[in-house]
Design goal:
heterodimer, A: mainly beta, seven-stranded mixed β-sheet, four-stranded antiparallel β-sheet, about 50% strand, B: mainly beta
């Protein structure tokens, strides 16, 4: 059982380049989330999808777009990367709203924008 | 979501109990208290959660005060592998299940 899988694990981009971070879960979870974590900081929510077909902004959505492709997959896109987006990105999934259950996190994508 | 306040850092001797406090004085009646930890910048790991009763699982115990304004996570016999950042999070039932992280407590378990 893989849980939450993120690809790639590491990426270096030049300023202005675009890329998509992929996330997939195999736990049949309704909700999925994207977080970023800057050095020495806690995690901040970028976007989330409470259920298939819905997405909502989190705390820091500017500069990002998301797609809930199906129940398993939730991707995060940087259209024009900036050095301020250098961070570790975590995807998570959970049963979702109204249910007092835990979220499961992937191992992260370490992104550097130069 | 109610805000939480945690001490930025704590030390604990190996083999002793680690007691991590969390203040959540603005918690609402239907909000749960969750604890996660993050080891060496890995993905956060769920530990335990509760509403108003004390809870225990194989990892830890969660003690919530009667007025629910604060809680304590207890690691009964801390090991070096418990060195991590511990996050206390308050989460309501109708917010898409999202977790809003604060700064957490950096726990150092020392030999």
């Amino acid at each position: 059982n893989a849980g939450v899988t993120q690809t790639p694990k590491f990426q270096v981009l030049k300023t202005g380049q675009s890329m998509t971070l992929q996330c997939a879960q195999d736990m049949n979870h309704n909700s999925m989330y994207w977080y970023r974590q800057d050095p020495g900081m806690g995690l901040r929510l970028i976007y989330y999808s409470a259920s298939e077909g819905t997405t909502d902004k989190g705390e820091v959505p500017n500069g990002y777009n998301v797609s809930r492709l199906n129940k398993r997959e939730f991707s995060l896109r940087l259209e024009s990367a900036a050095p301020s987006q250098t961070s570790v990105y975590f995807c998570a999934s959970g049963l979702g709203s109204g249910l007092n259950t835990e979220a499961f996190f992937g191992q992260g994508t370490r992104l550097t924008v130069v | 979501d109610a805000k939480t306040t945690q001490p930025p850092s704590m030390d604990c001797a190996e083999g002793r109990a680690a007691n991590l406090p969390c203040n959540h004085s603005t918690i609402s009646g239907n909000e749960y208290v969750y604890w996660y930890r993050q080891i060496h910048s890995q993905g956060p790991q769920y530990i335990i959660h509760g509403l108003k009763n004390n809870e225990t699982n194989e990892m830890a115990s969660l003690i919530i005060t009667e007025d629910r304004k604060s809680s304590t996570l207890i690691l009964p016999h801390a090991t070096l592998r418990d060195t991590a950042v511990y996050y206390c999070i308050v989460r309501g039932p109708n917010q898409g299940g999202k977790l809003i992280f604060g700064q957490g407590t950096e726990l150092s378990v020392k030999p």
